[in-house]
Amino acid sequence: MSAVWLHVGQCGNQIGQEWWRIITEGAGHSCEADRYPFLSRDGKLGAVCVDSEPKVLRKAQKLVKHGCFRESNLIVGQEGRGSNWAYGYYGPPNEGERGLLQRTMESFRKETERRDCYSGTVLFHSLSGGTGAGLGARLCEEIREAYPVGHILSVSVAPHQAGESPLQHYNTLLCLAALQRSADGVLLFHNDEALSRVLSLQSRSPSSLSSPQAQASLSSMNSHIASCLAGLLYPVHNLTTPSRISLGLEPWELLRSVSPVPATKFLHTTQAHTRSTVLWDSLAASTLQMLPRHSPSGNPHYSSAVLAVARGDQCNSFLSSLDPVLRRLRHGHRCAAWNPFPIDYWTDPQDVVSPSPSSRSLTVCSNHSSVTDLLQRVGKRARDMFQARAYLHWYHRYGCEDQDFLQAFDTLRTVTEEYRAGEE
């Protein structure tokens, strides 16, 4: 086992619970060797869960009773962080040595020592919450400083554009800047895209005929994100040893495949799955329908690198149709001309996303320039608020300074320029 899985805040823990449900229940058809990367030697999951309020982690307590989680790895506070990045990052003034940050890092250290070979961390969190964005960013920086050789892959969820909190643009700005400095890759999910995808899937189900006004629940959105993660990070046949043992290399090989340039590390994920023998080319076309093609100003987006993970390829049908699938993905993603090998692919005979004898799934992760739409939108709205001095006193109260905002603006501007330069 090589990774430690760190869940921070309400969003990070809710998606994490869906993720572990897939690993412990949904993968019942897979061999036990596939679960090896997620377990310590005593059979407990290698996860650390932290939140500033106890409500969300009560569900994780049930997994402790079932012997799945280690109770000492559930780090719970008694007061929230007020949707304030600064409060989450710096913590209460009188928190002391037994604060959330110190307790989490101590549990994290012990968990790394249980690894056969610690290779990195997968961090689940949101970009807009006080705990997820603020404490998540601080933990990312602390882990980078304490374990400089280890990889950090962040699973980050962006808020709805319509607004979840008046502070969400500040929080997202500061968190994205911190991830750019400390993380090796950011699997970026958008609440608006997850909602749209879930509603699209519900509209195709037979039950939608009786309830055409069905609404997507938060749980179904979390399940969709966890499904995409399972498609990417669950062990695949390509990366196992000759004795079919997985070493848990998927997160780090993902980074190698889709992050050819260290300065551009924000990753977009789409997924299509079916329970019938639909052609892989059709699944590839479905993933492209969910891909943003143009910026609000009409400029076309591009991908510097793409990874396709085909699951349910029991008779090597994906390999037999490889050329048309890769051509479709290359054309649909407008792959950068400077990358001679822009597309990588993995296959596995079992489909953990939707387990059934005939199910297939195709999960596509790309280093896609559409992230600049988010960076520019967040930067503009946050700068408008900053110039009006709106809400800044809430951040100054906990130690955040104007220079932190100015540095974050500069970081997002630099990332945007790097993506533009990559297309040229």
Defining traits:
about 425 residues; alpha/beta; 10-stranded mixed beta sheet; 15 helices; about 45% helix; about 15% strand
Instruction: Give a quick account of the main beta sheet: strands, pairing sense, barrel closure.
Output: 10 strands, mixed
Percent of residues in beta strands: 15-25%
Number of strands: 10
Query: What's the order of the H and E elements?
Result: EHEHEHHEHEHEHHHEHEHHEEHHH
Could you tell me the mean pLDDT?
Answer: 90
* Structural class by sheet pairing and helices: alpha/beta
Q: What is the share of helical residues?
A: 40-55%
Number of alpha- plus pi-helical segments? 15
Structure description:
By secondary structure, this protein is of the alpha/beta class. It contains 15 helices and ten strands. A ten-stranded mixed sheet has the order 3-2-1-4-5-6-7-10-8-9, sandwiched between helices. Strand 5, helix 6 and strand 6 form a beta-alpha-beta unit. Helix 13 packs antiparallel against helix 15. The model has no long low-confidence stretch (mean pLDDT 90). It is globular.
Summed up:
With 424 residues, the chain is α/β, with parallel strands linked by helices. 45% of the residues lie in helices and 16% in strands.
